[in-house]
Amino acid sequence: MLDYDKEAGAYDALRGGEPRAAAAAEAVLGLLPPRCPGLLDVACGTGIVTRRLAAARPETRVTGVDLALGMARTADARMPGTVVVGDSRRLPFPDASFDAVVSVWLLHLLDDADVRRAVAECARVLRPGGVYVTTVDKAAAHNVGSDIDAVLAARPRSPAHDTAGHVTALAAAHGLVPAGRARFPGRGQGRSPRRTIADLRRGWFVTLAPGEALTETFAARLAALPDQDRPRPDPVFSVRAYRRT
């Protein structure tokens, strides 16, 4: 897994920046309840999406939490005094503290045990009638049927623990029922061969460690593709909402 403390400074630029954040925030906002006095953004990262949620809902008290100190510092610079350092598996908030809880691009980073803990914690801090909004099926979204995907299809895979069906089942176990869904484009995240090679060598793909012979084999195959700097189509991400009964 990437070191998110070290990634904080370049994180937004490498992942679509403001256009991607705007698309993500729009999808999330469309799933939030009309009245939402308190919102928690879990794994808020650099705060690039959190800030947009706060700007769109000025009547809402928005709080961000992230485990990586570098990310939390960047988010706090955007939203001073509203960001805390904390673990999604042990959120530092009392039960029933928020009317909405959001986790964008979190669950795909966790193993199954930690996905279970994170969903349980998001449900715990949610008030009755509140809504939990989260991205699902993150890895699948990146497969857009391109020549890059054809090369990467042979790589070792780790199981996905953020599938929509799995997250829905976990949510149900904590009294959360489906309350809507949305999709949004990962603007600026269409892969080019050269960028994918750089991501391989940075440890982006968790089953292909930087410096290993297999990683370099895939890098060589990607280097043989045409149009090395042409981005392939953007991924389209999925978001699900669950209401606490």
Quick structural gist:
This protein is 38% helix and 20% strand.
Biggest sheet, in brief? 7 strands, mixed
**Helix fraction bin:** 25-40%
Shape descriptor reads: globular
Oligomer: single chain
- The tally of beta strands, per DSSP, is 7
CATH architecture: 3-Layer(aba) Sandwich
Distance between the termini: 35 Å
Low-confidence stretches: none
What's the order of the H and E elements? HHHEHEHEEHEHHHEHHE
Q: If you average the pLDDT, what whole number results?
A: 94
Textual characterization of the structure:
- Helix content is 38%, strand content 20%.
- The protein is α/β, with parallel strands linked by helices.
- The chain has a single domain, classed as Vaccinia Virus protein VP39 (Rossmann fold, 3-Layer(aba) Sandwich), CATH 3.40.50.150.
- A seven-stranded mixed β-sheet has the order 3-2-1-4-5-7-6, with helices on both faces.
- Strand 1, helix 4 and strand 2 form a beta-alpha-beta unit.
- Helix 3 packs across helix 4 and helix 10 packs antiparallel against helix 11 (213-223).
- The two termini are 35 Å apart.
- The mean pLDDT is 94.
Provide keyphrases for this structure:
seven-stranded mixed beta sheet; 11 helices; single chain; alpha/beta; 245 residues
Write the layout of secondary structure elements.
Layout: H1 4-7, H2 11-14, H3 17-29, E1 38-42, H4 48-56, E2 61-66, H5 69-78, E3 83-85, E4 98-103, H6 112-124, E5 126-136, H7 138-141, H8 147-152, H9 164-173, E6 176-185, H10 193-202, H11 213-223, E7 236-244
